[in-house]
Amino acid sequence: MIWEQETQVIVMTTKTVERGRVKCGQYWPAEESITEEFGDFDVYNGGIEHFADFTITNLVLTNKKLGTSQDVVHMQFTSWPDYGVPHSALAMLDFRDKVRLKQAEAVAAIGEHWQGHPLGPPIVVHCSAGIGRTGTFITLDICINRLEATGLIDIVKTVERIRAQRAYSIQMPDQYVFCHLALLEYALSRGLLEDVDLSGFNDDDSESE
């Protein structure tokens, strides 16, 4: 899929193992300067950048049948607990900004070769089940893009549209509340709001994958 869609950025919102349970396979080399074989493809780890809440790994994907390669940036958010939401909306917003920056850099590097959507090839986003944390990140990204383009946000309709394509996206109430809080934080950080009354928001301790 990554090769077929010419994906340049992968967003992973889970660890491979959480609370002793395997949440996702290790589909890329975990150590720098290592190449691993996955069927018809070789994946080379060209370097890792470590941040407080996420890691960025520069990969090279080689199609052994064709003898050609493409760069892929793997971005893993590591501070999202197995049960709950990120401890900081700012950390998630910083991560999302880095994702968009890496995508823009990749599109610029592709140049005229890319003739598709102006924002570039699809960004692949995944967690374990692909609905809770994945849905939360995608909702934030879509809403921020719309806010920047139009000055408007509609979280309800955004979630409805996502769920029409991926059932049960945003599994738990705490994830839905987190989307609102993160978007408020984003608006405050950009000077779009002067003050916010959060008295209507209540923390929810429901489990989320």
CATH class of the largest domain: Alpha Beta
Report the total helices.
5
Strand content: 15-25%
Strand order of the largest sheet: 4-5-6-7-1-8
Q: Main sheet?
A: 6 strands, mixed
- Name the CATH superfamily assignment of the largest domain: Protein tyrosine phosphatase superfamily
Helix content: 25-40%
Number of strands: 8
Quickly give the structural class: alpha/beta
Rg, rounded, reads 18 Å
| Corresponding CATH architecture of the largest domain | Alpha-Beta Complex
Would you tell me which CATH topology of the largest domain applies? Protein-Tyrosine Phosphatase, Chain A
Q: Give average pLDDT, whole number.
A: 91
**What is the domain tally?**
2
Summarize the SSE layout with pairings.
Elements: H1 2-5, E1 9-12, E2 17-18, E3 21-22, E4 35-38, E5 41-50, E6 54-63, E7 68-77, H2 89-110, E8 124-126, H3 132-150, H4 155-165, H5 173-189
Parallel strand pairs: 1-7, 1-8
Antiparallel strand pairs: 2-3, 4-5, 5-6, 6-7
Describe the overall structure.
- There is one protein chain.
- The longest helix is centred in the middle third of the chain and has 22 residues, at about 90-110.
- The radius of gyration is 18 Å and the shape is globular.
- The chain folds into 2 domains: about 1-130, Protein tyrosine phosphatase superfamily (Protein-Tyrosine Phosphatase, Chain A, Alpha-Beta Complex); about 130-195.
- α3 (about 130-150) crosses α4.
- The protein has about 210 residues and is of the alpha/beta class.
- The chain has 5 helices and 8 strands.
- It has helices at about 1-5, 90-110, 130-150, 155-165, 175-190, and strands at about 10, 15-20, 20, 35-40, 40-50, 55-65, 70-75, 125.
- A hairpin with a 2-residue loop joins β4 and β5.
- The strands form 2 sheets. Strands 4-5-6-7-1-8 form a 6-stranded mixed sheet, covered by helices on one side. Strands 2-3 form a two-stranded antiparallel ribbon.
